[in-house]
Amino acid sequence: MWQAYKKGFKAWLQLEKSLSENSVEAYLHDIDMLTSFLSINAESKTPATINIKDLEKFIQYINGLGLSVASQARLISGLRSFFKYCLLEQITTADPTLLLEAPKMQRKLPDTLAFAEIEAIINAIDLSKPEGGRNKAILETLYSCGLRVSEVVNLKISCLFLDVGFIRVTGKGDKERLVPIGGDAIKFINIYRTQIRTHISIKTGEEDILFLNRRGQRLTRVMIFLIIKELAKKAGIEKVISPHTFRHSFATHLVEGGADLRAVQEMLGHESITTTEIYTHLDREFLRNTLQQFHPAFK
Fold it and tell me: Does 5 participate in catalysis according to the annotation?
């Protein structure tokens, strides 16, 4: 019985919501957890007969499994999507998730690098080695464009429009966006392509991937993390950083410089502006200066 609902839900996520395979599998896993819970409790419920009390018991159950607050909130989001689908397809006449409360999450802000710290990390690269030129191009691109690590490892040569200062990026849910790219990143990408990449024996299927390892394959996300971690250590930076720190710093520096939040949202590829607002953790001095500059009562 539930298999038919799951099959329809999967098709809806793929065709109507255009979600990636990983996201679709995550949503289906949420429904699997719900049906497992119902089975354990010998509840022969259908989507139409599930009520909020059933869901509250389910949330208590997953909380007892030791799932983190973030995982619980994501699972509830999956349930909401499922029952939205059920309403649209007239499988149910009411949405039992409507009054379901998600656990409160504290937004944890990752460390931000100052521009001088980013320069120190990039300057720690050994350019006498072939991978040094590649790594410089990668880090300049990460910071210049604010890319996710998955976006930089999958960046294609055919998506580079360096003559006009843009790259086309495929983000979450296979959504594409055009992102401006800075002069330094362009310079070091061109050096990498003409002086380093041309000497690599490229694996079949990887010909269009920009950044390759010495075996001619695209880099893994873990490899990018290890590169940055090692460079930060060489630069004497003790903050906990990752490839995302460059993305976070990109957005923070833009917002602190007065960039429009909607423009930052577009460049980061965030579907919701509320996701971008995490980057507005500006220091008090900056806020005070902004008020003094623009608020009539402070002039």
Answer: no
